[in-house]
Amino acid sequence: MERGPMVGVYTACNWVKPIYLTDRDIDVVYRQMKKDILAHNKAWQVNYQKEKTDVK
Questions:
Q1: 29: which of 1, 9, 16, 18 lies 20 to 30 Å off by Cα?
Q2: Burial (CB count within 10 angstroms: exposed 0-12, middle 13-18, buried 19+), residue 55
């Protein structure tokens, strides 16, 4: 059985999203978790937000 060339589809921006917290979340989650969420959101902003705003 012959197969054509493999084609990769870039889908990272389709599943990586910023994490949003409610006021209640901010009150109850641990400080380290808040830092982890902030780091995740900063990484998302650097790597993926530009692609969303460039699409027209």
A1: 16
A2: exposed
C-alpha span between 41 and 29 (Å, rounded): 16
DSSP state of 20: P
Which two tokens mark 51?
């692609």
The whole-model pTM stands at: 0.65
Between residues 15 and 37, the one the model is more confident about: 37
CA distance 25 to 37: 11
The residue count of the chain comes to 56
Task: Decide: 19 and 45 in contact? Cβ < 8 Å.
Answer: no
- Per-residue pLDDT, averaged over 27-44, amounts to 96
